[in-house]
Amino acid sequence: MKWDVMSWTADGYVVVVTMTNFQMYRHIMSPGWKLGWVWSKKEVIWSMVGAQATEQGDCSKFKGNIPHCCMRNPTVVDLLPGVPYNQQIANCCRGGLVASWGQDPSAAVSSFQISVGLSGTSNKTVKLPKNITLAAPGGGYSCSQATIVPSSIFLSPDGRRKTQALMTWNITCTYSQLVASRYPRCCVSMSSFYNSTITPCPTCACGCQNKNKCVDIPTIQSIVTPTIDNPILQCTEHMCPIRVHWHVKTNYKDYWRIKMSIINFNYLANYTQWTLVAQHPNLNNVTQVFSFAYKPLVPYKSMNDTGMFYGLKFFNDVIMEAGPDGNVQSEMILQKDAYTFTLSEGWAFPRKIYFNGEECMMPSPDQYPHLPNSAPVNLFLASSRAALLAICLLVFW
């Protein structure tokens, strides 16, 4: 998060705040981000472009011009799409939605402008805001204190002139799944063509503390609109809002085929711009992916075993609420490596699965679908034995 002071005013400054999401596969979904802080002095917000404060506060001491916000600890939210152009700046007004960097870098930035008053009008008199908080659906973000850094440099549209901010400070916010929740928010089930048994999600994979709040056949009028923090879930053994199913579908001579399904058990809550990350050693030889977009993630050049899947825009980039339409599916063909490929000991199943940046609970390895102990009897041999037995019986008769 970068704050660039662009100009001084009679009693303060105009600053452009830019938030960039560098997380490769975790985005901020609806209802969007909320940014808060505590002023170091008695600052007020005279006006805002591209965002708004949720509360005005007590501005009774001002005569004439009334500030946009007089709160000592303001909370700011993004504007919704479609606001008048005079209230917009670049990278604003998406309702607080911020895409992941790996999915769409152009939509991974959110900006707004603030005119601050009663704050000082020079680099020596301006005091940085304190106790910055970033709230997003699901929580889990912790922010550092603001730190003054070298001023940002800007290029003119023709690229021939450089200008710079009068003052710049940075804030870094990090995400922790443990801080967000005690329990996972998704789980993984498995199946295969060579075993009729389906390995389900572990029981209470996402905790059973809300077991008494789950519903089997919901009556919409009796359900309060759920949130990511307190969803209304379909009653299941795993009690997860999201289940990812990995099915080993077919084994060809040089290739093998996988089917992936994502099922939403959250009533009345959609998952927009979702992402699914899988870790498997054969992802270095992906031949074709159907109905999902795919992008390899290579954090280490020596390893190419992780890939990100996400929906196609206007087709399946939204996972609808629990029900007949509450799922998306895709299939993937991978080329075999003769030295490593095997169907034994669970090799064909993923090492880890992440949904929307959250690590999903995997089944215990000893429960993975296993190969049968013996192969079926050769049909030609069986038919020959049957014919021979028939001849013997005929001769005997």
Characterization of the model:
With 397 residues, the protein is mainly β. It has helices at 177-180, 379-396, and strands spanning 2-8, 12-20, 34-38, 44-49, 51-53, 75-78, 109-117, 130-135, 141-143, 147-149, 153-155, 162-164, 167-170, 173-175, 186-192, 195-199, 242-251, 255-264, 271-272, 275-279, 286-290, 293-297, 306-310, 318-319, 327-335, 352-355, 358-359. Mean pLDDT is 89; it is low at 379-384 and 386-397.
Helix content: under 10%
Low-confidence stretches: 379-384, 386-397
Largest sheet: spatial strand order: 4-7-2-1-13-10
Number of helices: 2
* Spatial gap, N to C terminus: 93 Å
The outline comes out as elongated
- Largest pleated sheet: 6 strands, antiparallel
Q: Can you write the helix and strand succession as a string? A: EEEEEEEEEEEEEEHEEEEEEEEEEEEEH
Estimated structural class: mainly beta
Oligomer category: single chain
Q: Compute the CA-based radius of gyration.
A: 28 Å
Mean pLDDT: 89
Number of strands: 27
Range of strand content: 35-45%
List keywords for this structure.
disordered C terminus, 397 residues, mainly beta, 6-stranded antiparallel β-sheet
Brief digest:
With 397 residues, this protein is mostly beta strands. It has two helices and 27 strands. It has helices at 177-180, 379-396, and strands at 2-8, 12-20, 34-38, 44-49, 51-53, 75-78, 109-117, 130-135, 141-143, 147-149, 153-155, 162-164, 167-170, 173-175, 186-192, 195-199, 242-251, 255-264, 271-272, 275-279, 286-290, 293-297, 306-310, 318-319, 327-335, 352-355, 358-359.
